[in-house]
Amino acid sequence: MTNASPHTPSASGTFQGKIGTTYEESTPWWPEEQKLPEDTPNVVVIVLDDVGFSDLGCFGSDIDTPAMDALATGGLRYANFHTTTLCSPTRASLLTGRNHHSVGMRMLSNFDTGFPSGRGRITTAAATLPEVLRDNGFNTMAVGKWHLAPMEQTTPSGPYTQWPLSRGFERYYGFLEAETDSFYPELFYDNHAVDPPKTPEEGYHLSEDLVDRSIEFVRDQTSVTPDKPFFLYLAFGAAHAPHQAPQEYLDKYRGRFDHGWDAERATRHARQIERGILPPGTELAPRNPGVVPFDELSDDERKLAVRLQEAYAAMLDHTDHHIGRLMEFLEQIGQMENTITILLSDNGASQEGGQKGSLNPTAFQNGIAEDLGEMVARIDDIGTTRAHANYPWGWAQAGNTPFKRYKQNTHEGGVRCPLIVQWPRGLPHTGEVRQQFHHVNDIVPTLFETLGVQAPEVYNGIPQLPIHGVSMAYTFGSPTAPTRKEAQYFEMFGHRAIWHDGWKAVAFHQRGTSFDEDQWELYHHDTDFSECNDLARERPEQLQKMIARFWVEAGKYDVLPLDDQGFAYRAKIPRPGSPRLRTTFTYYPGMAHLPIAAVPPVMNRAHRITAHVDRATASDEGVLVSLGNISSGYVLYVKDNRLVYEYNFLGTRYTVTSEEELPTGPAELTFEFVKTGDMRGVGHLSVSGRPAGSADIPRVLPHFLGWQGLDVGRDTLSPSSSSYEGEFAFTGTFEKVVFTVAPDEEGAEPFERID
Fold first, then answer.
1. Among 277, 472, 474, 541, which is most exposed with the fewest C-beta within 10 angstroms?
2. How far from the centroid of its chain's Cα atoms is residue 472's Cα?
3. Is 509 assigned a catalytic role?
């Protein structure tokens, strides 16, 4: 045989063997496999949502959290741990080790502000923890809430560049939005939408499902490659509103909070001091503005407030039970001993239930007050499939004991959160409390140091931002070591703060006012844990020093420009490239569920919906298009041989029904909303161009239609109407549905109306 030509390197890299004409004349070679040390620990990061500093039993509460308490007993509690005061930014810092403005997540991933700090996505200049761990030999799995992708991009057409599987995770199951109904969640498996595996009537609840999937992912991986470590990121929907739990958990807490929020705060405060969570002498902060003493509430207000807190406690207790199941599973498969488990909340307890509480989060987002009498009349719906409940300010303040204010604010009530670290094989001390100041951006460098992993300077050809956090690993064996954190800024919606060398300056910002009018407060945190003694007047030089340091940090970490525009305002402004920028939308039956951020923008706009169908018989019926859930939305359907449109205004339903029965055969079934004023109009029905009925729709929502998206040909998840059961899928032949939407809110008739 002729001699083979000299070997040249292939696309797979330089081959270090020998290639001859035949295998007898050749020498094989295999690249050395990347292997981590045998004792490399697994990592489990558990994120709770909107859980206050004192809400876990091991941090002072009476809520039953035995699984989380057991993690604390076998690990360490951090009592001076801080987050960013909002969900997406905290997750961005948690998964990158950088400050949230620097990576592009100044607020929620729902928005792009047009500035580098507010793109609503994590820059590729900040490789995520799963990207780095995956490239270092870990299997990576994410389960639960993501909320780090631009929400207009969470459709079947993507782009998928900011979905979990594109940012380092190899498996994903969960929901992509800020919140979801725990009985009817909007679920995604890897890169596609899926229906929940069973119904609430069959016992479904999201928290249980997320732990089931976590166990499945870990079991699959450890069964095949038991020597390979895994990183599991488990982000619960709990205890973000809506507060929902199985009935047995709701029943368990009946009467447990009849004493009210003032007594609850006092009890938690005393317990925190007794258990070493708070230093001796720590004061209990005064009531937040707008929080009424519990004894001064009316009977109905107390009754409602107690029931809302019972639902919150039931949801947290239920979540704890399933965390316990996960821990038991890790023990059963022999992985618990060498697993680093980190459990935290993403921010303080939420103020989004308002002064009296809420059964409808869409009302809060639209700035509409709910009627107390109507809420009390629905009190037995709280915590169930029939309500989207959130508790009032008084209970949120109790959750944040002993601090001031709440989620969204940069006082300690918004940014001081529970943190538990457990590692049976690796922690030299357990059952103790750590008081060193730390921040969520410190988690990544802690894990990198513990795992022996280096943060890449260049990733996928892109120079990387430096890690902004500092490792907390020194605290594992040094209870009293001084913190290694030098400074940390905070900013959200214009609220600002800076911590440095034991001092904190903080400014509460009133939305819509000049930032120059904000009053800065000054606290010496080393002696004033709960920010009760404002030293701004006594120490003006120190205050000015702290304010100057804030501006230095703001410049360094891309905090500017300050922005106090709220969620509802921004929800109406599509980012460039958003599918909502069109005025015509055509959808086909069988398409995947469409998230709310990508649906046609019909809020307070004239619009038309036309379904092209063919009904063989008068019995063909069902949903043509539906959006929303029990809280808000709309649905167009055929029932009893008539065309029906329902608009759900925060539980009040306005209905337009065709006056005559529908013909069989091909037809264009149309609903048209014509504005007669701001946030009101008339709904018109037509069949193949012929008027079929009309009715006033006296109120429509101004900004936000809720958290549940759009379906074509069926009504999935939480029902849009109570006039039918289940999905009520359309049984006729369905070609398409076409939306035509006015370009803005001003025009009452942007297209020729059917007369």
1. 541
2. 26
3. no
